[in-house]
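Incident log, support desk, overnight shift.

02:14 A customer reports that sequence design results differ from what the structure should imply. Their input is reproduced verbatim below. On-call engineer (initials T.W.) acknowledged and began investigating.
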């Protein structure tokens, strides 16, 4: 009986080498080719731009608030020092020298001599007026005539008398309004003044703003022949309104 031959046993692998007192194993194939993990970075540029825009906007708001606050303080100081008041206007005299409505064509012809008194109640404020337009109409809205006053400087604590003649020549009138005018022996008139005025305080001059003046409650008799008739209600007080334009709107 033949003897069996057994293969020699596999040699034991070499023990791991010690590195700094710890066992070190050789790197496997998978470990030697492993890529580093991808870590996305946050978008720093966008955040920095947003922060810069927010800072600029905040500073602009603070500057605007500061300017408004300083302007309010300056306006308050000026008001306490100068105590400004609006100018006043009144119709001191009105004489209707001609008034006629033709029977054919309903054409109006009229002539009015008007005196308007302007008063400046302020002791340290001067008003600078542009030319002033004047329009006279009846209470029913029929235009009697147009005219104007020249530009003038209204000194402090000063009263200025403005005179002009308002005329209408051959103005067409609605048939129903013409019939009423032909029957009337008295006319109720309304006067509208419109101009621009600025304020002068010392050497400081402001920008001119619109002013509208409305005078009503004036009665005058229709003249007969060539005799002029004075208004029955002189010294009619007028209302003054400022017309401030903001972008496209006029207040």
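02:41 Re-run completed on a clean worker. Output:
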């Amino acid at each position: 009986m033949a003897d069996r031959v057994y293969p020699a046993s596999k040699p034991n692998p070499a023990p791991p080498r010690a590195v700094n007192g710890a066992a070190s194993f050789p790197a496997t194939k998978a470990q030697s080719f492993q890529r580093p993990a991808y870590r996305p970075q946050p978008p720093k540029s966008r955040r920095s731009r947003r922060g810069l825009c927010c800072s600029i906007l905040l500073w602009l708001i603070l500057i605007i608030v500061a300017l408004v606050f300083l302007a309010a303080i300056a306006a308050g100081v000026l008001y306490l020092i100068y105590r400004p008041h609006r100018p006043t206007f009144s119709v001191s005299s009105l004489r209707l020298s001609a008034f006629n409505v033709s029977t054919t064509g309903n054409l109006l012809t009229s002539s009015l001599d008007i005196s308007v008194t302007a008063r400046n109640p302020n002791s340290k404020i001067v008003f600078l007026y542009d030319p002033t337009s004047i329009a006279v109409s009846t209470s029913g809205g029929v235009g009697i005539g147009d005219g104007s006053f020249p530009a003038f400087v209204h000194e402090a604590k000063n009263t200025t008398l403005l005179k002009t003649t308002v005329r209408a020549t051959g103005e067409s009138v609605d048939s129903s309004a013409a019939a009423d005018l032909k029957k009337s022996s008295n006319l109720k008139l309304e006067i509208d003044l419109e101009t621009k005025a600025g304020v002068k305080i010392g050497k400081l001059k402001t920008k001119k703003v619109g002013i509208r003046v409305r005078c009503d409650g004036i009665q005058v008799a229709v003249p007969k022949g060539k005799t002029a008739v004075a208004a029955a209600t002189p010294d009619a007080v007028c209302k003054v309104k400022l017309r401030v334009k903001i972008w496209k709107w006029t207040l």
